Amino acid sequence: MAVASDVPKESFRLSMLIYDTRYRSITIQIFVLILFGLFLAWLLNNTAVNLATRGKEFNFGFLWQRAGYDIGQAIIPYTNDSSHFRALLVGLVNTLVVAILGCILATILGVIIGVLRLSKNWLVGRLMTVYVEVFRNVPLLLWILLSYVILSEATPQPRDFRVTDEMAAAGEAPAASMMLFDTVAVTNRGTNVPAPLFDVSLGSVNLLGITLNLTILAYIAVIAGSVWINRLILAGARAQQEATGDRPVTWWKSILVLFGPVIALSLALGLHLEVPELRGFNFQGGILVAHSFTALLIALTLYTAAFIAEIVRAGILAISKGQSEAAFALGLRPGRTMNLIILPQALRVIIPPLISQYLNLTKNTSLGIAVSYLDLRGTLGGITLNQTGRELECMLLMMLIYLTISLIISALMNLYNTSVQIKVR
Amino acid sequence: MKKSVFLGVVAATMTVAGAASAQATLEAVKARGELICGSNTGLTGFGAPDASGNWTGFDVDLCRALAAAIFGDATKVKFVPTTGETRFTALQSGEVDLLVRNSTWTATRDSELALDFVAVNYYDGQGFMVKKDLGVSSAKELDGATVCIQTGTTTELNLADFFKQNNISYQPVTVADDSEAQRQYLAGACDAYTTDASGLAASRATMPDAENHVILPEIISKEPLGPVVRHGDNNWGDVVRWTYYALLIAEEKGITKANVAEVATSTADEEVKRLLGVEGAGDLPTKFGLSNDAFKNAIAAVGNYGEIFAANIGEGTSINLARGLNALWTQGGLQYAPPFR
């Protein structure tokens, strides 16, 4: 009896690429990939051809040319002799400042509102509902414009602060006056606040093309040191509490450690405030915080806080009622229950959608162009693009930068997210 | 993979925008049956829609003259408002056939932006406007002032240069267009507003308290303003250029909107005959791809250069600009047309 000892060795045929389920999915994927590659090549070729017919070349050399324009609010040093790249950096810093401050303020406000919206107090709860619905249902651009118009139309002109000789003789007060012991002036152009100045300068060092101000570094070092020592003190107190059940008094040590070194450093460097004063057309001296910045920050904060409030509320509601009941049964008061039991657990639900809100806020800063805030969109994507006529390069660069910022925020928040997730031990 | 998707989307956007052909704009316009003219978003006297939506102004009339020259009908033109930021992109991408919106002729725009400025229809310079009660009589007294400035313009760069040369400081407030600049200036958010002197006069004319604002005597730059076309289509550039020159020659020869028909029958001047396409005087206008009576139609539609100037921005209008540099060369100005032969 003849038994087929072996399965006959199957030879590979081309048709198997389509009819054999083992290979089919791979075939389709490769096919789609090739099509996609061709599409991409066609797009790039088309772009190159069209650029060539218009006599334009693709290069980023313009970034090193003299910019030639001025920027109202530059946090890092900038003059019209700086390069377009420097203008890009100025814009980037302006974008980041608004984005970071906006994220921080919106989180604080959003958490407060989200928690209050669940308040048993009927009035407080309804008020917060109204807040959320009003702010998230009106376009952000309108909020930005509204804040800006209010700030610039409801505040006095710089010349209203002036005291003329006749007015002084008649004993009249000027139409407007400065606030907070004559140190802060709010005009229709911006808020002039005092600037910190030092008698002794530590100078600056140039590291790899980046100029570092040693005074600021000294402050950062001292504050970091103070915080670290303070943590040691608190850790010591906790250890003693766990060992003996008796927590030593630490508040005066903390105050001393946190504030002492900073005050000592300030005295050593001769810190004093430069108060703005009216000279000529504007207040001179001090720091001018333009209304475009303030308006953008306020609008972004209020708008995003409404979304964050909803996220926080959802997070809190996701925690089972048994948790708070258990906490109450242990004798914890509602405030501590919220801080120690509910919020830490709710964070797991809150963080992922919160990342999206941070990304939204960061990208929404580009709306600052509506109130002449010169962020990345205003410098690189606005004036530089216009003056050099390099649309493609500027737009690509701008998209790349926004993408990088967003990915960094995402990565950092995901890192934080993993740290608050339930630990499976 | 993510990154290639991103690049693909970018390239797609760019390609769609750049699909216009560089050649044969005149044929495209004729086939479309309508001229598309890039205009201002609204600068009274130069280019602005009136209450009933009709565009009027000095720049607008040049577009109408061109439409009349191409189609024999000055109404076959569509105006697309563009801002200082969007104007050149709109032209390069083929969204508009030409720009006539007080744009300054510079070397960068001629070379790097791949545009051609075909003529100068208004010789201008950058000036400053301040409120009278500020007590400023010269731009050099503006040390420390806040200045409103339109973004994407040559004035932005001139401003920086002027303050640097005079060693004085200023705080720029960058705004998108003329109306926003006016709002900020009137609200007192800036001490001075700077743009082309003609633009300042036009803005002042629309202000409720025009007499309280003064334009400072300093003119800090040369701003030759004129029609712009894409680089590479020379015939189209010639059509625009010579339509404009036809209006200049008409003024020089005393041909007006009212008498153009009569002049065409009675004139003994050979250049006028050639320009108006009178029978037996040759067919020079057809060499541009236009009909023989194209320039006659243009003059009949909007009048000569002097008439356009007087009707829109000249003395007697609310804008009240003197001819100055824009007088004909025979009257001491710079407006000069090459011979039409």
Could you explain how this protein is built, in words?
Chain A is mainly alpha-helical. Helices cover 63% and strands 8% of the residues of chain A. In chain A, the strands form four sheets. Chain A has a three-stranded antiparallel β-sheet. In chain A, helix 3 (84-117) runs antiparallel to helix 4 (122-136). The termini of chain A are far apart. The mean pLDDT of chain A is 86. Chain B is an alpha/beta fold and 341 residues long. The model of chain B is unreliable at 10-22 (pLDDT under 50). In chain B, strands 1, 4, 5, 6, 7 and 13 form a six-stranded mixed β-sheet that branches. A five-stranded mixed β-sheet of chain B has the order 10-9-11-8-12, sandwiched between helices. Chain B folds into two domains: 22-123 and 224-331, D-Maltodextrin-Binding Protein, domain 2; 126-221, D-Maltodextrin-Binding Protein, domain 2, CATH 3.40.190.10. Chain B has helices spanning 2-17, 25-32, 58-71, 87-92, 107-111, 154-165, 178-186, 197-206, 234-253, 260-266, 270-276, 294-302, 305-312, and strands spanning 35-39, 48-49, 55-56, 77-81, 98-104, 115-117, 122-124, 126-131, 145-150, 170-175, 192-196, 213-215, 223-230. Chain B is 38% helix and 18% strand. The longest helix of chain B is centred in the C-terminal third of the chain and has 20 residues, at 234-253. The termini of chain B are far apart. At the A-B interface, helix 2, helix 12 and helix 13 of A face helix 1, helix 4, helix 6 and strand 10 of B.
